[in-house]
Amino acid sequence: MIGLVPTARERVRAELTADIADAARRQLAEVGAAALSLRAVARELGMVSSAVYRYFPSRDDLLTRLIIDGYDDLGATAEAADRPSALPTERWLAVCRAVRGWAKAHPHEYALLYGSPSPDTGHRRTPSRRRRASASSSAGSSAMRPAAACFPRPRGNGIPGW
């Protein structure tokens, strides 16, 4: 059986697609998802905008690629932090710390994954931090009791390392 070797054209396409996604990530960090522009990405790469549309037919397709890449990277980070031989609470904390570290290192990608949707999608925006805090406090801590009951209380002032 002969293995499929990518052609030169396929390799160039994959490389240019990755370059476009990288430029879009840089633009995402500068202007946010709502202002992401394929024209600006093309300009940064020294391409005409019509050439970028051959790789990503729309801005939404490019955003989808960035979201998929973000989840892949976040998932790989979480999996790398997991130690199956550790106690469940230690595993949980290690993965949580790794996810938090990824979020701090990639704030714009994290916002793309878990923040407000792009304004032109028509979806309801996520509530503000103040509204979320008041809603969670008005709901009481009963919602957290089942999950909290699964783990022993940490000794001292809280979870070490947080």
What is the topology?
Layout: H1 8-31, H2 38-45, H3 49-55, H4 59-81, H5 88-105, H6 107-114, H7 129-138, H8 145-149
Summarize the model shown.
By secondary structure, the protein is mainly alpha-helical. It is built from 8 helices and no strands.
How does this structure look, described?
The chain is an all-alpha fold and 162 residues long. It has one domain (9-121, 140-149): Tetracycline Repressor, domain 2 (Orthogonal Bundle), CATH 1.10.357. It is 64% helix and 0% strand. The protein has 8 helices and no strands. The chain starts with 7 loop residues before the first helix and ends in a 13-residue tail after the last helix.
Notable traits:
mainly alpha; Tetracycline Repressor, domain 2; 162 residues
Query: What's the CATH H-level superfamily name?
Result: Tetracycline Repressor, domain 2
How many strand units? 0
What name does the CATH topology carry? Answer: Tetracycline Repressor, domain 2
User: Strand portion, in percent?
Assistant: under 5%
CATH architecture tag: Orthogonal Bundle
